[in-house]
Amino acid sequence: MKKIRKSKRDQQESFFGWLMCSPVLLLLLVFVILPLVLGSYWSMTNKRLISPLPTEYVGLDNYKRVLSLKVILIQPQLDAAGQFETNETGQVLYPRVRDVIRSNSEYHSFRPYKEFDIFGHHYGLIAKDPEFYTSLVNTTLYVVIIVPLILVISLLLAVLVNQKIFGISFFRTVYFIPSITMISVTSVVWIFLFNPSVGLINLILRTVSFGYLGSSQWLQSTDTALFSIILYTIWQASGLFMVIFLGGLQDILQDIYEAAQIDGANPFQTLIHITIPKLRNTIIYVVITSSILGFRLFTQVDVMTKGGPQNSTLTLILHIVNEGFRNQKIGYASAISIVFFLFVLALTFIQRSLMKSESEME
Amino acid sequence: MQKTVFFFSKDINRVARIKKTIWLILDYLVLLLMASFFLFPFWVMVVSSFKPEKALFDDLKSILWAFLLRHFTLDNYLYVFNRVPFLTYLKNTLVIVILTIFLGLFFNSMIAYSLARLRWKGKKLIIGSIIALIIVPFETIAIPLLVIVNKLPWFNGSMSWLDSLHVQIIPFMADAFTIFLFYQAFIQIPKEFNEAAIIDGANPWDIYSRIIVPLARSTFVAVAIIQLIFLWSAYLWPLMATRTEPYRPLTLGVTYLYHMDIHWGPIFAFATLSNLPSVLLFIIFQKGFLRSLASGGVK
Q1: What is the SS3 assignment for A84?
Q2: In B, which residues are within 8 Å of A50 by CB distance?
Q3: pTM score, two decimals?
Q4: Element (H, E) at A118
């Protein structure tokens, strides 16, 4: 009797189990798994969004095109006498990489990416999709710079607003507000602030430094555009990470701080010797989250620079959107998407293993 | 030893007090400096939204007037309401965000309940797959998803989901990370809570709706806030999936205004208006907002 009732309940649980899962399973299947599977397949075809020609299977051609990179030695230009040609200052002249590629059928469909000198030789880096490498380098540079900055600034903010002093909830609110605004909207506001001639940032810098600073071109120069995006993102995102640190800080027991105070530790010593070691897990979480968000950089760049000037702010996602959506090359963009995914995956695994080995050390 | 010195020497006591005061002054200086960095773009945005176009640029010659308002006009706001479909954008954003959050809370908590508290065959595989899906960034699937939704039929006879509101809602209702947060919260609720209910003959749906959901209220709030922050700013997908203004959210409206013909006054009015709902919501519910974010995000 008892057995029958139990199996009846099992049946009921099984029925409800599947029933309550089914809406989400269906949604995930259609809107996440199907795109993943189709994207992986399309990455091996020449599919376009609208095309009169049928889609063809091309194997790994798209991936080869994404990743192909070659170093070529560039010989100096020779003059009529067979000597190295030089300019007025005595520098050796080299032919343009574009011409070297054109003169050699082996480099067919390659385009110049970068030139560099090493050990007295002149080299050219050529790629089938130089924009991919440009975007990869830009995105990596962005992540490498912004992650430590976000970490330090948001931790500092969290320690500041974790004090019990007058007016602290006002400051907490002010620091967090940029995080709940629309990125595209505040990006447009910052375009105005960054304007080299009438923008407020240059005006403030000129006033503060008595005219010494404040002539930067910000978004309009290849040297400073990526840095400007970083500055904006720090303004926009620090508050969110501050709140995450605040959660970590509030889990630390107060008596440790009281003991430190009795021992005469100043706030900096307390920060270095108590707060940071206690926050290890939160720090790792913030590093992982901010670097993944960094690799996904898109909105502010699309609004503020569209990747320019001269591709100096082109990011991986922007490249995917340009190829897949704006140029409608679905197959090729799917291949870049998969490569992008593998980068994010590798990053996650590296950081997960770091997290593990550090916790084992304790 | 140190304690006795601390109590009996007046001089050391005074030095300590001066030291403390200096730290406090430094403290407020840093706080104010940081506050001005985070606040000045908003200040400029709001003040400039009330300036006539000419005054806006004249005022930029002096750092003082750039931050102050001496000529007041509402023209910029009238421009936003009359020349731009601002109310359509606002309605679209609100419909998309509210429906996605509420339907998402319902469906995701339901599957999390099923995975965390019911016994049935095959659920281990599903838990594993969902955890694996957390790592997949949306950008990886954006392009293939665009092709898929382009071929989906809808009830009104349309053969494509592009250029609609539901294309911005339905694909984002199920979310692996949200399921994971609910799963973790539900698994911590002691089993005793539903055993009494089972004896009373309650079925799993009753237990979910009457016991689990009320007990995990704080998780629902945390999930809603995290979702709100990301959905409110959504830009990439609306950019790809909509083609005409009647279906676009505020995040695209601002670029429409920017590319139409750059008039900074109306842009600032648009920016002020579109940031108002989320900022007000945050200021009203500040305490709960920050607490649930801090506890929900990490653990």
Answers
A1: strand
A2: none
A3: 0.90
A4: strand A111-118
Would the CA dihedral through A88, A89, A91, A97 be positive or negative?
A: negative
Cα of A126 to nearest chain B Cα, Å: 26
Query: Residue A237's closest chain B neighbor by CA?
Result: B38
Residue B47 and residue B206: Cα distance in Å, rounded? 53
Partnered with residue A125 across adjacent β-strands are A71, A114
**pLDDT digit string (tens) for A144-192?**
999 999 999 999 999 999 888 888 989 999 999 999 999 999 999 999 9
- Give rounded-to-5 percent helix, strand, coil for chain A: 65, 5, 25
- H or E element, residue B285: none
CA closest to A332 among chain B residues: B143
**Contact call for A181 and B254, based on CB within 8 A:** no
Task: Among B30, B171, B229, select the one facing A160 at the smallest CB separation.
Answer: B30
Q: For the sheet with A69-74, list strands across it.
A: A69-74, A121-127, A111-118
- What is each CA distance from A306 to A123, A132, A226, A299, A336, in whole angstroms? 30, 15, 12, 9, 19
Peptide bond into A309 cis (omega under 30): yes
What number is the ipTM of this complex?
Answer: 0.89
Rounded (10°) CA dihedral A312, A314, A316, A317: 160
Contact B290, B74 (CB under 8 A): no
Residue B156 burial (C-beta neighbours within 10 Å; 0-12, 13-18, 19+): exposed
Integer CA distances (angstroms), B77 to B67, B69, B249, B252, B269, in order = 19, 16, 18, 18, 6
Which of B22, B38, B186 to mutate against chain A (most A CBs within 10 Å)? B38
Helices (H), A183-266: 183-194, 200-208, 225-249, 254-262
User: Which residues in chain A touch residue B141, judged by CB atoms under 8 angstroms apart?
Assistant: 32, 35-36, 39, 337
